[in-house]
Amino acid sequence: xxxxxxxxRQKGPDETGKxxxxxxxxxxxxxxxxxxxxxxxxxxxxxxxxxxxxxHDCREGICGMCSLVxxxxxxxxxxxxTVCQLHMRHFKDGDAIYIEPWRARAFPVIKDLIVxxxxxERIMYSGGYISVHTGxxxxxxxxxxxxxxxxxxxxxxxxxxxxxxIAACPNGSAMLFTAAKVSHLATLPQGRIEAAVRVCAMTxxxxxxxxxxxxxxxxxxxxxxxxxxxxxxxxLNREFMRAAFIKWKRERND
Amino acid sequence: xRFLKSMVGRKVVMAVSGLVMLLFVIAHLLGNTTIFAGxxxxxxxxxxxxxxxxxxxxxxxxxxxxxxxHVFFGIQLTAENYKAKPDSYAIRKSLNSTFAGRSMIWTGxxxxxxxxxxxxxxxxxxxxxxxxxxxxFDVFGRPDVFHMVVRTFRRSAVAxxxxxxxxxxxxxxxxxxxxFIQTLGLNNEKTLPFFQKYGxxxxxxxxxxxxxxxxxxxxxxxxx
Amino acid sequence: MILxxxxxxxxxxxxxxxxxxxxxLVGPANKRKFTVIVVGAGLAGTSASATLAxxxxxxxxxxxxxxPRRGHSISAQGGINAAKNYPNDGDSVYxxxxxxxxxxxxxxxxxxxxxxxxxxxNIIDQCVAQGVPFARDYAGYLENRSFGGAxxxxxxxxxxxxxxxxxxxxxxxxxxxIKAGSVRVHPRTEMLDLVVVDGEAKxxxxxxxxxGEIASYAGDAVCLCSGGYSNxxxxxxxxxxxNVTATYRAFKKGAFFANPCFNQxxxxxxxxxxxxxxxxxxxxxxLRNDGRVWVPGKKxxxxxxxxxxxxxxxxxxxxxYPSYGNLSARDVAxxxxxxxxxEGLGVGPGGRGVYLDFADAISRLGEEKVRERYGNLFxxxxxxxxxxAYKQPMRIYPAPHYAMGGLWVDYNLQSNIPGLFVxxxxxxxxxxxxxxxxxxxxxxxxxxxxxxxxxxxDYLAATTPGKVKADHAEFGKSREDVDGRTRxxxxxxxxxxxxxxxxxxxKIMWEYVGMSRSAESLRxxxxxxxxxxxxxxxxxxxxxxxxxxxQELEKAGRVADFLxxxxxxxxxxxxxxxxxxxxxxxxxxxxxxxxxxxxxxxxYVAAWEFKGEGGEPELHKEPxxxxxxxxxxxxxx
Lengths: 254, 224, 637
Fold this sequence. Notes:
The complex is a heterotrimer of chains A (about 250), B (about 220) and C (about 625).
Chain A: E1 3-9, E2 18-24, H1 33-46, E3 68-70, E4 73-74, E5 96-101, E6 109-111, E7 114-115, H2 118-125, H3 147-157, H4 164-168, H5 175-187, H6 189-192, H7 195-208, H8 219-223, H9 231-253
Parallel strand pairs in A: 1-5
Antiparallel strand pairs in A: 1-2, 3-4, 3-5, 6-7
Helix pairs in contact in A: 2-7, 3-5, 5-7, 5-9, 7-9
Chain B: H1 7-32, H2 39-51, H3 53-84, H4 99-102, H5 104-123, H6 145-154, H7 156-183, H8 191-218
Chain C: H1 15-22, H2 28-31, E1 35-39, H3 43-55, E2 58-62, E3 80-81, H4 93-103, H5 110-130, E4 145-146, E5 153-156, H6 162-180, E6 183-186, E7 189-197, E8 200-208, E9 214-218, E10 221-224, H7 245-252, E11 257-258, E12 263-269, E13 292-296, E14 313-314, H8 316-320, H9 330-342, E15 354-357, H10 359-365, H11 367-385, E16 394-403, E17 406-407, E18 420-422, H12 440-460, H13 473-492, H14 498-512, H15 519-539, H16 551-575, H17 599-602, E19 604-609, E20 618-623
């Protein structure tokens, strides 16, 4: 099939970008979306033009590198699918496809469709961990964890940190990402001890990185390739209020 | 107050102040329904309410605080959100968000203006002193709130302003109700669709309740 | 040269303990004076960085991805082995050790494998403490499942995403150190050269993938944790960016490359659909527990699989290996599949595929049960092929997967260049000629959490911290080399794209250096690869410049290294006149087509030394001494 692509082209972070038209000819239905772009790029290289830069790595939907907004939806319309796993059979001959980078103030464009997502890392650095030393830990079965809790923690921990939630959020908020990380650790007994400190540090870091506020639109959940539920945002809110209450009580006792 | 600077803290304030106003709106609606029983009913309700000075002087500061916080943080948060998403997509497809949710700031501003107008009209009664309840009394010597309301809504332009504002209220609440439940952390994946559905229903009922008053007056069913 | 693995003497189970006592320590106040450079941020790299930083060393970690939580370890599905013996089914450190040595076809170093098995339990404890949500049973205890090559249940797992969860665990430990200021992360930065000063590894030269800046970093030791080289086959289960560059540049600076011909081909991958294919997706081999592998008995049979009557099907694995059948080892199943396809019996596009049929399992267990067991894999298959495997058989084909070979290291994980340590898949040490399922994650974390922190101290204690600075002449020379090479790639302006040349290399490698090789095919490869390399250096087209984000340039540099490295694999495969594990030489098989190992002549590690571009590398041997295990023949009949 033949497609018309409108792709965001931007030379560098400080340049202005624009949508550029490219034709994709003889696209096979069995190609993945990124393979289709590979073919377009090979054509561009052969014709002495600059290929389209886009992030990708594992191409099996788990590393979280790929990050394209396809026709207005991060990772494209197929639910619970990263764009590297989106196949061309979901498009029709003659379709026009708009391809844009993740957009948010916290995600400056580096080039074309590649954005800088290090703001997400800085949220993690602020407290997305359990402060455990290597070695000197108890046996894995020393602390029992109910199957339900282990499953809930896993539901949150599945987050691949791609940033689609932020790209889809009308407010550019990193709430679902942060909530998934907070909830994963707060659900497990090992992570409870630092839960209050963690949720405060991570939400503060999120605000400091230029992400917007959550106003409960739930666009994030709809585009999440792992289907992370917004119930974890409710959990983050609970954890935050609990942390504030604990702090208030402590200060009163002092 | 770090709580009031934090993302979640300010949203909790939005949720709680919104909830306070919602409870007031519900009470207000229930009080208003006395109008359907005629002038005696509404005027006696109004008089009794005014006699409960303690109640009035307790809720008024609470309401003023709630409105102030809701407006202040609402504008502040929205401004931050606009800043966090400076560029828009060439093509944008919304999957879960609603018109109601995306237009919260605009329905909010509309309601803010409406509240001022409404207070001037029925609380301070300065828009049309001729029909003011503070100057006109019914046969029992009570302020004639009933006639003030009925005469006001006979003017279709005023009635339309009220109807339009109450539609805005319906939109505002349909997002607001499910939103405060989420913000207060009371949701899980099962309750979420429930609150979204019934939140909208409650919003529509409240709005329809308010709208019914100018409608029945305009239609001539309720006469003064 | 005869290499010495420097294993401690004494009984197998006491060797590591003995070494721990022998090794020097660095005092707490001195640790912060040392800088350790870590290249790669998969399981080995992140776990090593976090642990070394926690001990007090200054750590600089480099990765080409945009974050140190995207290394390809993240793709591992199945699980991680540990000799916990929680199910009480007779597991022990010794049994895990023995299974791994046997699975590796007796081509690994006994002492290393034993240590790996011994620390395996600590890994699970560590990960649980970090918050890795392993599967639990209803009483809250850790759950286990069984995996290929073992008769006990010792595999711990987190749904089908164990690698992801372990990597995120290690990454969280790293985050803590980043916050503490003891680690600096350099994402989107690729190592392009190793800097050796006075015979010791003292730094690296890198290219910033965003700005194109070429810079040098000096350190007191360098840890390479850069993963495997299966992308030399172009199509593999590796990530698009996985490459051999870091280890190959170290090889060119004098580090020995060990057993490069041991490359695992995984039997259950989704077949290629056309020329455009960029990578192959692996499906857990657990599918072979219930799926039956077959092809039509006649050539050119174009009927849909359902219409092929039972009598006209060839269940070739069950026919050839009656006792193990569909569950025979990875290398055996892969080879048998390629054979039937070479005979023209393959199915699907290009005849490169065989059926993996669940019809029997569905009628025996019911669709529900099959869904419960393999639902996520069937979904993944459906996403990629748009075929419903409940209604029609899957099509599978083998794909290059894991590199058992890697840089040669001694028992302390130090290469022959002092100060250069190699961890995880990048080294050669633990899997011999074939790796068992759920062992890669175990090795990466064992190296990073529990081995390198001790062994690196032994080296550092004998050196002066900060002895070599980045202004040393060697660094300048290294930057010039890297810069020159980059400029050359840009200047060629030929007519072929990097991808085209990579695909051509992949075809040569798969055809002649693939899962079954002969002296003849390898010689052919040794002729074709240099030709292709020459064409590359004349006719490759790399657009843009070196001073910007340039993905074609990144790929070109990696493919240029593969074009040299492919030859090294062929040399190694040609010299190893035996069949063992993943290395199958057609001349060395039993009359019924099984691998014939030659312990008399080849019970050694082949470590190759670089002897100039295009020159034949020099072979060094490390004899493998089996003090505990008795060498036996692997049989799946």
